[in-house]
């Protein structure tokens, strides 16, 4: 997707008053470095405070964060705060470093930015054909075509990029095709057996893993625990039965794997926000054709 655009750097300084609630784009760039003098020191820069996200397309560079060196090879990014204890450069062993980057002001982003780094680390591996990279590509393309002409457009683009990056950090393997076979088997087992009172131990046994290893692997891959996923399946089925049948709530509870109607009601109210009875009669929330739980 980058073959159709030229290298460049585009900066923004919006001065509209009373716009503190918006996200502030500072700079977007697509660059190829071959000069050995390319080196940025986080504590020497005067343009902060800023957050930098820089993604390698070809070649590689080095970033040292808190004294720890990282190789930033293709399909990897680094995330740092400016000013900060880091520096990044083109090492002698690399003949070039081609990358796309974005600089944004930290206002309203601190918690999400820190949470992303906590989840994926300061040098995450991100596939080229992923939503965050499509999003930052779109920012650069819009900048290069002079279509970011006000703070509202800039803020919307930044927000979309940050949300896609945040989503990636929470669901790094959102496509089940990328999951280990053991997890795909476990999900199929839950889809086939949700009507029965199965638990973590039975699901892990079917996946061929210890329940502790299975729980960690499933959570790290999907962003939710196996029991959360099973509950999601059961409640989505329950919502369909409540809406489209006249079955009693005790019978629905049994059909979706709960042995107790009262416990089913408690779980339903916790996740949906109202009791099954109120949901059926439309007393507590707007009726919907399908309920998606994630």
Automatic annotation (TrEMBL):
<dbReference type="InterPro" id="IPR037923">
    <property type="entry name" value="HTH-like"/>
</dbReference>
<keyword id="KW-0805">Transcription regulation</keyword>
<protein>
    <submittedName>
        <fullName>AraC family transcriptional regulator</fullName>
    </submittedName>
</protein>
<feature type="domain" description="HTH araC/xylS-type">
    <location>
        <begin position="184"/>
        <end position="282"/>
    </location>
</feature>
<dbReference type="GO" id="GO:0003700">
    <property type="term" value="F:DNA-binding transcription factor activity"/>
</dbReference>
<dbReference type="InterPro" id="IPR020449">
    <property type="entry name" value="Tscrpt_reg_AraC-type_HTH"/>
</dbReference>
<dbReference type="GO" id="GO:0043565">
    <property type="term" value="F:sequence-specific DNA binding"/>
</dbReference>
<dbReference type="InterPro" id="IPR003313">
    <property type="entry name" value="AraC-bd"/>
</dbReference>
<keyword id="KW-0804">Transcription</keyword>
<dbReference type="InterPro" id="IPR018060">
    <property type="entry name" value="HTH_AraC"/>
</dbReference>
<keyword id="KW-0238">DNA-binding</keyword>
<dbReference type="Pfam" id="PF12833">
    <property type="entry name" value="HTH_18"/>
</dbReference>
<dbReference type="InterPro" id="IPR009057">
    <property type="entry name" value="Homeodomain-like_sf"/>
</dbReference>
<dbReference type="Pfam" id="PF02311">
    <property type="entry name" value="AraC_binding"/>
</dbReference>
